[in-house]
Amino acid sequence: MSPSIPLQEMIRAIRSARTQCEERGVIQRECAAIRAQFRQSDNGSRSHNLAKLLYVHMLGYPAHFGQMECVRMIASSRYSEKRVGYLGAMMLLDEKQDASLLITNSIKNDLSHSNQYVQSLALCTLACMGSAEMCRDLAPEIDRLLRASNSYIKKKAALCAVHIVRKVQDLGELFAPAARSLLAEKNHGVLHGAVILITDGVCFVLCMFQTVPELVQIMRSLTVSGYSPEHDVAGVSDPFLQVRILRLLRILGRHCETASDAMNDLLAQVATNTDSTKTVGNAVLYETVLTVLDIKSESGLRVLAVNILGRFLLNNDRNIRYIAMTSLQKIVNTDHNAVQRHRGTIVDCLKDHDASVKRRALELSLALVSASNIRSMMKELLLFLSSCPPELRSHTASGIFTAAERYAPSQRWHIDTMLHVLTTAGGDVRDETVPNLIQLITNTSELHCYTVHKLYRALLTDISQQPLVQVACWCIGEYGDLLLRGECQETEPVQVSEDDVLDALETVLQSHMSSPATRAFALTATMKLSTRITDNVELMFKIFKTGSGIQLRKFMIFFLLFLKNVLSPSVLRAAVLERMPVIEKNSGQSNGESAGAKTEPKIMVKPGETSPPQQPVNQVCDLLDLLGGSEGPAQPNPAQSTTAAGLTMNTSSAAGGDLLDLLGGFQPTPTLSVYEKNGVNLTLQYERQSDAVLTVTLTACNSTDSDISSFSLQAAVPKVCPQRRPSPHHRSVESGRRGDLDLSQSSSASLFTAFHPCPIQVHLKMRIRISYTVQGSAFQDMVQVDSFQGL
Question: Which domains does the chain have, with CATH numbers?
Answer without folding.
Answer: 431-575 (no CATH), 671-725+747-785 (2.60.40.1230)
